[in-house]
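Q: My labmate handed me this sequence with no annotations at all. I'd like to see what the chain might look like in three dimensions before we decide whether it's worth expressing. Could you predict it?
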Amino acid sequence: MRTILSIAGMLVVMGAQAEVTEITPMLSAVKESKGQVVEMPAVRRVAPAVRELESAATMQRLDSVVGFNSDGSKGTMMRFVYNENGWWTETHNYYWDAGTESWGEPVQSILVDRMENGYVLAESNIYSGYGVRSEYIYDDRNRGIVKTNYSMSPDEEGWVPTSKGEYTYDDNDNIIEEYVYSYDADSEEWVYANHNYATWDAKGRQTSIDGNYWNGEDWERTMKLEYRWYDGPRDPDYVPGTDPERLTYRLEYMKIDGEWLPLFITENFFNEDGRVSGQSYKYYNRENDNYYGGDSYGGLLMLCTSWVSEIGYDEVGVQNLSKTFNYIPGQEEKLVLLGQCEYEREDMESGDFVMLVTNRVNVYDSEWNVTGNKVVDKSWYAYNKSGKKLWCYEEMPDVNGVFIPMLEDKWAYDERNRQIATVSYDFNGNERVPADWITMEYDDDDNLIDVLSRCNAGGGMTPLGMVAHEAGKVTERDYRVGEDDERENWKYNNHWQHSWENGQKIQSLCYRWDGESWMNSQGQNNNFDFSVAVEDMIVPPAYTDVYKVDSIERLYGYGEDWMSTREVYYYTEVVNTAVEGVEAEYGICYRDNTVYGNGGEAIAVTVYDLAGQKVMAAEGTKVSLRTLAKGVYVVEAESASGVTRTIKVYVR
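A: Here is what I predict for the chain of 652 residues:
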């Protein structure tokens, strides 16, 4: 459950507030992991607008959250302040003073100054004389173009500037240039720190990044990269709410003898179904002016091998082809087969099938002639007819070439393909050693209601180094979770039980096994008022629940009993005149996970998560948000007639 941040967590911030805040460059290189398909990172605005209003005239306003100790006495309080338009502007945190029976002065205050449209002009966080502050300047499109950071401490008088960022955007609101400055207190002047550029395509995907830092006299480049993106169908394993864009080309440059030269290209290839069909990693060779590797760049790199792979799949998406080729340096596209995986499939009457994958690499002489090959590992995989993995067993050769088992994992699913069990084993010589066994149960709405975990009853960890042995016939193993697992040496570990109502978790209880019985460990009770939805509430941005929260009870095991602390939420019913008739006035409304233009008017919609990251952009007379993961988002909409509206919505 994600609600208002924990009161205790909000108060323990002294160390963080004492640090000087620095601007981190907004522009950055697209993250790339060798051999992985890379997704496009979202670009943060400098200061995203978060509007906490919806279209009800009478609304519930959260005013405070009070924490009570286990004995019922008051402990902490978070108090929220809003302006006349319903925007959250202040949070004050207090400890209860039992001596004076009062809250006293706040120990921490978070203050926000806003423009009339709700955009943040300044935000401050102050704790025991220490503080950090950020101030923002916007252009005529409400894009943050300047962010200035300040710090405060008991040794300083007022706010002292520390760092600053200046930002330029393209017509699609992507940051294309930024200057980052640090503040020189001695000269009382801003000093250059970073200067970065970026380019983007029409879909908002980064196509280049050029990074520079100030060396005291001139700009010095720190990085240069170029990108291209795949425009085919979505990945079959695409998860709703994530960005489906995938990187297909990445060129990175390196500075050699004062000159920036291309270093290597990473590529991903895709088949007609959108699955990865191959990958390559190619180093540039300066002497031959190609990307077939072999250039050590004057000893700066240890290995410059260029390679390309081929990947294939069967009819249910299970991989059945894998080959890796090396480029021979100095020769035009001369490839040799470095290694490949051999696949042997055995089909069962049940529709399951077992796949033996043997990873074999070739051995070459100095002229790149194959002189032999060797097996580096063997893996067995079992799948059900839907392509869900049921089993994995791996063996590797020891120094004598004898194959020894490394691990074994199993998975089980119900008739709705929901995972209901996972079992993991290690190996000690020829003995299979239990590691973890977890079983899961669900209700009819696919909510997880029971999680039972077991571990090795013998305790301890599997010793390093395994005794070599001749592997048995692996196909005789039971690849399904069943009786052979039950007979292993297990002991109970933890047991979680969850209760749900209206799609919300209302209770979680965890028990631990003491060797003979279950003992209370930890838990939480969440009390909602399901008659009030978040759309009809005025709350701070950290509130992300779907319904009004009345209280949260946190449970702590005390033998066979429970101890508890409580957080009670206090509200006021207010008439929010700022949003009366909002649908008619703005021509934009939201209902049933869809943003509409009033009267069929076309609208342009941009959606951000609560961290300010853009997760969606679309146009039309209505825009559905159903592809997004369930949760709370900020929607900025503009009608064809130029009317704009910013709202916080919940996608169900």
